[in-house]
């Protein structure tokens, strides 16, 4: 789960991290009051969306102005005007894709005099199963670009969970970033704050880009992006309350309400599978035979008829889907339950695209019987290869 920048800064401020004072604006008429509550002489006006590259982005609407989603203002009136221009408009960045995201919130904060821009992140290293620090002197840039062009400017190391964060970790980061004097002590303290917040809040990623050195030589968190482990939200109720459902794909949001593992993709063949590994294999074989999957969807081992029905409805709600492949290997999941769910969903939402069903495992004969007696125009498949070939042929011709 992701949260907005202003929410991330409020959370980090609570742990003692140095962040600028700011105000969030939800309605245009609030903009002037919010800007007026901050000291000048410089105000920064930021569009709040769950995507990076806001400063380099552009708005679809001409009346939003030609500047990107991060703007500087030299007066309260100018800050309010820039906020009004962006609210309700569609911001397109390299991470949003061409559709862009609608800006429903603006963050106005005090400007900072910047001496240097640095990059810092904490994330879960899946290889070592440890928390890793990543830092670079090249702040303000996409870390992927730095990694591709100047990888020697990136320092990355993991923290042993047995010891947790230690001051020498912070000093290592400080020296790598070229910090000196009091900045080293500030860095050691800040890294400890961030590590503590990361662990206590069950984060998956904490990115600060840029972490700046001000003209007075102090460290400050100028931007913050936080991502949380969705599986931990049951014990992070205050974090869960920060969720902005308008920023999420409607299909993924609906799937989460039924405990379905669904991720929307750009292809044309919808997939309903049980088990993450089988789902990945199904996506791979669809690509092997010349098509693209429209989604990742794992209904899980304990799916009910209602869950399967909802999963099918989510797949068919995607306008890009030109065919559906149901691939079920029944272990814990029974094939007859899948069959009943598919039949119920088709009767409820209709079937306007080709449907290939491959069933194997527990109660497979009963499942096949249910589908064959349903009277629906369903293409049966004997195995995964046969199913992939048939759905690709049905879609591609």
Describe the protein's architecture and organization.
- The protein is of the alpha+beta class and 397 residues long.
- The chain has three domains: 21-110, ATP-grasp fold, A domain (Dna Ligase, domain 1), CATH 3.30.1490; 114-240, ATP-grasp fold, B domain (D-amino Acid Aminotransferase, Chain A, domain 1); 250-396, Succinyl-CoA synthetase domains (Rossmann fold, 3-Layer(aba) Sandwich).
- 35% of the residues lie in helices and 25% in strands.
- Strands 8, 9, 10, 11, 12 and 13 form a six-stranded antiparallel beta sheet that branches. A four-stranded antiparallel beta sheet has the order 1-7-2-4.
- A hairpin with a 4-residue loop joins strand 11 (203-214) and strand 12.
- Helix 8 packs antiparallel against helix 10.
- The longest helix has 19 residues, at 182-200.
- It is elongated, with a radius of gyration of 25 Å.
């Amino acid at each position: 789960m992701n949260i907005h920048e202003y929410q991330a800064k409020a959370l980090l401020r609570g742990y003692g991290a140095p962040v600028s004072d700011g105000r969030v604006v939800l309605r245009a008429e609030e903009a002037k009051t919010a800007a007026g509550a901050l000291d000048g002489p410089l105000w920064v006006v930021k569009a709040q969306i769950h995507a990076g590259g806001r400063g380099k982005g552009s708005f679809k609407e001409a009346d939003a102005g030609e500047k990107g989603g991060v703007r500087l203002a030299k007066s309260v009136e100018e800050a309010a005007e820039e906020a009004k221009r962006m609210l309700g408009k569609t911001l397109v960045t390299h991470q949003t894709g061409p559709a862009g995201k609608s800006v429903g919130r603006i963050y106005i904060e005090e400007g900072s005099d910047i001496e240097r821009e640095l990059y810092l992140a904490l994330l879960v290293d899946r290889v070592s199963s440890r928390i890793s620090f990543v830092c670079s002197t090249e702040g303000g840039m996409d870390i992927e670009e730095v990694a591709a062009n100047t990888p020697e400017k990136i320092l990355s190391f993991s923290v042993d969970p047995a010891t947790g964060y230690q001051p020498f970790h912070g000093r290592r980061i400080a020296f790598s970033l070229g910090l000196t004097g009091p900045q080293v002590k500030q860095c050691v303290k800040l890294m400890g704050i961030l590590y503590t917040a990361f662990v206590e809040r069950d984060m998956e990623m904490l990115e600060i880009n840029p972490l700046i050195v001000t003209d007075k030589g102090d460290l400050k968190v100028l931007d913050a992006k936080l991502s949380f482990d969705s599986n931990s939200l049951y014990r992070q109720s205050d974090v869960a309350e920060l969720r902005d459902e308008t920023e999420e794909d409607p299909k993924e949001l609906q799937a989460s309400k039924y405990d379905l593992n669904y991720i929307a993709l750009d292809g044309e063949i919808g997939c309903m599978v049980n088990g993450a590994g089988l789902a990945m294999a199904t996506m791979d074989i669809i690509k092997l035979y010349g098509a693209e999957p429209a989604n990742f969807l794992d209904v899980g081992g304990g799916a009910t008829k209602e869950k399967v029905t909802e999963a099918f409805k989510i797949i068919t709600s995607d306008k890009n889907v030109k065919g559906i492949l149901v691939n079920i290997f029944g272990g814990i999941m029974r094939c007859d339950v899948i069959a009943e769910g598919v039949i119920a969903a088709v009767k409820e939402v209709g079937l306007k695209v080709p449907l290939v069903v491959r069933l194997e495992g527990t109660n497979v004969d009963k499942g096949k019987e249910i589908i064959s007696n349903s009277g629906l125009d369903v293409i049966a498949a004997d195995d995964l290869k046969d199913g992939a070939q048939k759905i690709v042929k049905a879609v591609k011709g």
